[in-house]
## 1
Amino acid sequence: METQRASLAQGRWSLWLLLLGLVVPSASAQTLSYREAVLRAVDRLNERSPEANLYRLLELDLPPNVDDEDPDTPKPVSFTVKETVCPRTTQLPLEQCDFKEKGLVKQCVGTVTLDQVKGQMNITCDELQSVGFFSRLRNRLRRTWRRFGPFLGPLLGRFG
């Protein structure tokens, strides 16, 4: 009899814990990855864009090495989008839209937060004049130097 009561009580506690787990959302379920946050930013840019066609992520620069795990803290982002063949009115998922041959390419920089519920973004995009391999390489080197140059300049000056 005593074992039945203990078993019944244990079953109730298990049920309560299960229900509590369903009601209280986990913190990790509400946090976006760096890539997911950038994809949301691209979606918002498309929503606000007055242009005829949608843009899709072409290239995502590496995420910064930020030790701050707070999803509300703005994280710097840098990525490139390219015009697709899909009009703004399309019902297709963006991943199914092919890039437009000789479509416009834009370099975007700014910040995003990783909080899924109240995620924020502050992004500006500038059209790239030339989209050839060497101009993309030059732009990437410039972004990298802007990011790490202040740290490397004094170090490299010691060897010169």
Note: Confidence is low (pLDDT under 50) at residues 15-28.
## 2
Amino acid sequence: MVNVDGKQIKLQIWDTAGQESFCSITCFYYRGAEGSLLVYDITRRETFNHLTSWLEDARQHSSSNMVIMLIGNKSDLESHRDVKREEGEAFAWVHGLIFMETSAKSAFNVEEAFINSAKEIYRKIQQGLFDFHNEANGIKIGPQQSILTSAGLDACQRNSRDVGSDSGCC
């Protein structure tokens, strides 16, 4: 649950890391998703090199209005950095993505990534870009007029302990 403009928003999060070879499964998660976090490891260039493919999958199987945030993870390992921050920023700018760096280990910017994504989804709802009356999308109005969004989450090298949960879902 996150608070956006005084409203409680519940995010449903799916981690599809390591399932790239099962496109029929990962592609399913994008259907109805209104947000996605594409996460690469700043210490492993090959994860950054996969971004174009991951982004194509996300855009092919989702709404054209889906909020996509690009996350460079492991910012706590600056001395092992293989991908410059400016490269991530440039990729995000070219592709119209929101960008930030995080450290799942130290929790730096992790909560902010989810909150910023939720804020952008909420902004698009306010603009009328998402129809929460259409059951095909992931937005539901709850009994207290709260908004439930289904956010597709792609993560590279992330597991449940990184966010303090023993289950696969946060």
Note: The radius of gyration is 15 Å.
